Automatic annotation (TrEMBL):
It comes from the Bacteria. The lineage of its organism: Bacteria, Bacillati, Actinomycetota, Actinomycetes, Kitasatosporales. This is Phosphoribosyl isomerase A. The gene is priA. PANTHER family: 1-(5-PHOSPHORIBOSYL)-5-[(5-PHOSPHORIBOSYLAMINO)METHYLIDENEAMINO] IMIDAZOLE-4-CARBOXAMIDE ISOMERASE. It comes from Streptomyces noursei (Streptomyces albulus). Its EC number is 5.3.1.16, 5.3.1.24. The active site is at D14 (proton acceptor), D133 (proton donor).
Length: 243
């Protein structure tokens, strides 16, 4: 549980082909564009965000990368940054950490290269989070296009290796504004004593309040994407709702 016993909010800036976008179910081609990523990030910071969840979607999909632009955004922030997408080897990890981000979020590599992930967890401690991106209880990697094993088996393995934190995304909910998968969050919290960051489906302030009610069970934060861009509520309202 975090010190303030308060749900942290992480507004998301996902970058594809140089633009801030939102996807539906993480499907390539489902993008809605929201303009310049730096302007989006600065807007969330100005609205009071303490965290930014910053994703290089091209790197996650294997369609190139936005590394220089992502680094510029991360370096321009005064707030904490969680950096994600395409961090799969020493080179991409070094580039990510060199941006000064607070932590990185590892997806595919945790499924395909467990030895490397165990090594970086041992080296970097809580600067490493693992993204558990699931359909049902099956993990998905490589831009969420490939199955990557069982959620709870992988969680047990990562726990034993000392993973500090998990970012749990329900792909079926992501970008849909259909509400978070509270059952999944409760089940993951029951399976691990590490903090969990929720991702996927937030549509309303009541959704955020429902996630905040899981803080005592181990939910530490929530990523908010589509709902903010679609103006379902403002970030100021969201922060007030969970304070
Ligand atoms: O955030 C998305 O919408 C998304 C969609 C499709 C693939 C990935 C997506 N997001 C982030 O990318 C990392 C995984 O990247 P990698 O597998 O390590 O290269 C995942 O944790 C999400 O944060």
């Amino acid at each position: 549980m975090n010190a303030a016993n308060k749900l942290e909010l992480l507004p998301a800036v996902d970058v594809r082909d140089g633009q801030a976008v939102r996807l539906v179910h993480g499907e390539s081609g489902s993008e809605t564009s929201y303009g310049d990523p730096l302007q989006a990030a600065l807007a969330w910071q100005a609205a009071g965000a303490e965290w930014l969840h910053l994703v290089d979607l091209d790197a996650a999909f294997g369609t190139g990368d936005n590394r220089a632009q992502i680094a510029q955004v991360a370096r321009s922030m005064d707030i904490k940054v969680e950096l994600s997408g395409g961090i799969r080897d020493d080179d991409s990890l070094a580039a990510a950490l060199a941006t000064g981000c607070t932590r990185v979020n590892i997806g595919t590599a945790a499924l395909e290269d467990p030895e490397w992930v165990a090594k970086i967890i041992a080296e970097h401690g809580d600067k490493i989070a693992v993204g558990l991106d699931v359909r049902g209880t099956t993990l998905r990697g490589r831009g969420w296009t490939r199955d990557g094993g069982d959620l709870y088996e992988t969680l047990a393995r990562l726990d034993s290796e000392g993973c500090a934190r998990y970012v749990v995304t329900d792909i079926n909910k992501d970008g849909t504004l259909q509400g978070p998968n509270l059952e999944l969050l409760k089940n993951v919290c029951a399976a691990t004593d590490r903090p969990v960051v929720a991702s996927g489906g937030v549509s309303s302030l009541d959704d955020l309040r429902a996630i905040a009610a899981l803080v005592p069970e181990g939910v530490e934060g929530s990523i908010v994407g589509k709902a903010l861009y679609a103006k379902a509520f403002t970030l100021e309202e969201a922060l007030a709702a969970v304070s």
